[in-house]
Amino acid sequence: MARSAAVSAFGVFLVLGVLTASLGASLPFLRERFGAEHEVGRVVSAYNLGALAATVGIGLLGRRLNVRAAPPVLLAVFAAGAAGMAASPGWVGYLGCAAVAGVGYGGLALTLNTAFARGFAGNSVVMVNRLNAVFGIGAMLGPLAAGALGRTDIRLLALAAAVCSLPCFLVGRAGAVLATTPRTEAEDRGEAGGRRGGVVVAFLPFLLVGLVYAGLETSIGAWQSTQLVREGWSTQAATTAASGFWAGLAVGRLVIPQLTRRVPGRTALPAYLAAAFGALALAAVPHLAVAAYPLAGLALAPVLPTLIAWVSGVAEVPQQATSVLTLCCMLGNAVVPAVVGALGGSGGPVVIPVVLAGACLLCLGLAGWLRAVRR
Is residue 250 a contact partner of residue 134, using CB atoms and an 8 Å limit? Predict the structure, then answer.
């Protein structure tokens, strides 16, 4: 990948992280701006529905998608949606433009992750992790930006996102990477995936690992503070301490892949999950959860980028495979936290980390199956 495209992609992901994470923090200011009679929480739903629509659309288009043109078009869609949010005087227009911005966000996240997974040869896992770490940095800055601009006019934040995305137009060069068709692992092995029962069966382990992992990450974020409250922490202190897990994810995506860059994904993925299982088991020990969850974040950080790089390297149509993987992650985000809540929501403080460790163990088993299938 051209250096200019990579630098622009980092800039795009920083902007995406800021706007995406700021939406929730903006809700009180939106209520003041548009009136308490509106369900302002719908802006988050509209934005994510737009992202879902982009993910599904890219997956359905498959080979028919003009991948070379996709990044610049999606950047223009995101910028237009964000600018529309800034200019909309009424709630309905603001909501519709948020959905348009979400389409750009979802499409850019998918295509750029795929491009990074294909564009750096043996360094792809490291680069995908760095790209998502930059998104995490933006996500940490988003609520701060909302707090700073909200008292003036919260729409200024969307305007800033639109303006800051424009200098990143060289991200369009990333489409050249997606347009290439390097020989895949499946082709090198005589279409081994087809002999195992078709494309769906061949990629089923990838999808299941992604589903359980994404749900595990969301579940930790949703339930760790509840455990701390049950251990006697105040609500405010527990909420603040819970940020350690997200900090662990951000730091881990920068540091861990750099340390394990010579380890193949088929070996590294189970190792990451095994380390995370140990950290989550440690969280069940009284008073150690506050340190164990950041450690779990460090261990889990490279899992999804490694999975994206791996599936993009073996798929004949990488953006389509990444699209299906992303949809499975979205499903996991909805299903797994509900299961964790049903199993551990009403028990003592030890029950939550035990259930989370069980989910991690399941993910580790699926990763072992994936390694066996792709050996």
Answer: no
